[in-house]
Design goal:
The complex is a heterodimer of chains A (93) and B (160). Chain A is 78% helix and 4% strand. By secondary structure, chain A is mainly α. Chain B is 21% helix and 35% strand. Chain B has helices at 3-16, 134-147, 151-156; strands at residues 23-25, 29-33, 39-47, 51-61, 68-79, 98-103, 109-112, 119-120, 124-125, 158-159. Classes of the chains: A mainly alpha (93), B alpha+beta (160).
């Protein structure tokens, strides 16, 4: 069965494809009845699904990143200085 | 239901579906996000008299749960007007003639025999539009074709 896995970049590209095809922004498509009236219903449904999925995926990724960062141990400035110095030595080497 | 359970259930239902002798089913087309909380599904059933059923559904994750639900959908029965290089039926143009269509674009509504008007639920009696799922629609088309009864009988609605 044909299965396509979409990430955020894919969703961006598909949304941009609709915007270019109909020469309107996603915001106008969502808000303006006159714009929606000239776009086939099936395309509006797909377009809206991609927008919705993008919003939800972004939220999930933001939440995941926030959870990850909140679990990182706090570093003190002294160890930061040591790490920075070590990195600089590595670069020089 | 999550994506994996949904897909297994759908594949089971499709495998048990008794197609009329003049009908062929295309391979379902899936688009899923990673992780698979959101997905869309597209199905085509093609008839030898150039009519087809198109099923399109979009599912969303329910906030706070590891489950998803049907968010948007379009069920369409009408003439085939577009095919790809392999002869597979594709989504046609909005001006294509059709017999019946139920979709959620700008709110759930029904089209019957022509593009306009859009009948919303307040104009449709004896049928809850939301209660029509993909297989109920497919069976209504099969019955319509087998018996010649109009969709007002096989789906059981009246429009006002």
């Amino acid at each position: 069965m044909p299965t396509t896995v979409l990430n955020l970049t894919d969703l961006d590209n598909r949304i941009r494809g609709f915007e270019q095809q109909y020469a309107v922004s996603s915001v106008d498509m969502l808000k303006e009845k006159s714009v929606r009236d000239r776009i086939p219903e099936d395309d509006i449904l797909r377009w809206e699904a991609y927008i919705y999925q993008r919003v939800q995926l972004r939220d999930m990724y933001d939440q995941l990143r926030g959870d990850y960062l909140s679990r990182l141990p706090q570093s003190d400035s002294a160890s930061d200085d040591i790490c920075r110095a070590t990195n600089q030595l590595d670069l020089v080497a | 239901m999550d994506y994996f359970a949904f897909r297994k259930t759908l594949e089971d239902q499709l495998s048990k579906l008794k197609l009329p002798h003049d009908c062929t089913a295309q391979e379902p087309s899936w688009e899923i996000t990673a992780p698979p909380y959101f997905w869309t599904l597209e199905l085509f059933f093609n008839f030898t008299d150039k009519q087809h059923i198109r099923i399109w559904e979009s599912y969303e994750k329910i906030a706070g749960l590891q489950m998803s639900r049907r968010l948007q959908w379009a069920y369409h029965y009408g003439i085939i007007t577009a095919t790809d290089d392999n002869g597979n039926t594709m989504q046609g143009s909005p001006d294509d003639p059709f017999e019946v269509r139920i979709d959620t674009c700008s709110g759930l509504h029904l089209h019957y025999q022509q593009r306009e008007p859009h009948y919303d639920q307040s104009q449709v009696a004896n049928l809850g539009l939301k209660s029509v799922d993909a297989f109920k629609f497919i069976h209504a088309v099969f019955k319509r074709r087998k018996t010649g009864q109009p969709f007002t009988k096989t789906l059981g609605f009246t429009v006002t």
